[in-house]
Design brief:
CATH architecture of the largest domain: 2-Layer Sandwich
Distance between the termini: 54 Å
Number of strands: 11
Low-confidence stretches: none
Largest sheet: 6 strands, mixed
CATH superfamily of the largest domain: ATPase, nucleotide binding domain
Radius of gyration: 18 Å
Order of helices and strands: EEEHEHEHEEEEHEHHEHH
Strand content: 25-35%
CATH class of the largest domain: Alpha Beta
Number of helices: 8
Mean pLDDT: 93
Length: 232
Amino acid sequence: MLILGIESATQQVGCAIGGHEGVLGLFESARGRRHAETLAPAIEFLMTTTDIALEEISVVAVDVGPGLFTGLRVGLATAKAIAHALRVPMIGISSLDLLAFPLRHTVRTIVTVIDAKRGELFYAFYRQVPGGVQRLGALQLGTPDELQADLQATHDEYVLVGDGALRYREQLCQRKGVEFAEQWLAHPSAAPLVQLAHARALREDWVNPWELEPIYLRKPDAVINWSTREHR
């Protein structure tokens, strides 16, 4: 079973192919935020370099957010188009889950933090469990002050990961027991997307393309701006 993973929820865009042998190929770029122009050629390049035909793909996995609205739309539209064309099922995984998985060996509580712009953050808390991580509570949208208050509310030791954690690092490290993951882990990656999707695919835990919905946590900027204009 081969899985194509597509990730475009943040400033980084990427794709990966993998299966029971692990990740067989990976492409990632975090420059320019030109997701629409980059993604299709990246998938074609990945197929060529791994010598895998698109028709060999059994499942299409995609990051469903939360994240940047335009990037999410590009990734979901591309993933659904491929799944429709191949008549294969899909698996959607949250961007915050993808950030947590590479830190699954830490003993600290993991806090994944994505910069939501406009002074807000998408974030979630995780703990280590055998074979991976477990989310503690819901995905959240809040300000850096609200996240800082959540960190101050317990005596846990934390490791923060994501571009939001790095952007507001000084504000979020105002207590002992807080560490920050490396810069290269700052964006969700298509590699853990394929790994997590493969485990779910073995259980046939998938959906049809038309059933998959993005996780926004807030309305797009255009909707918010129009609502503000009407209120005024």
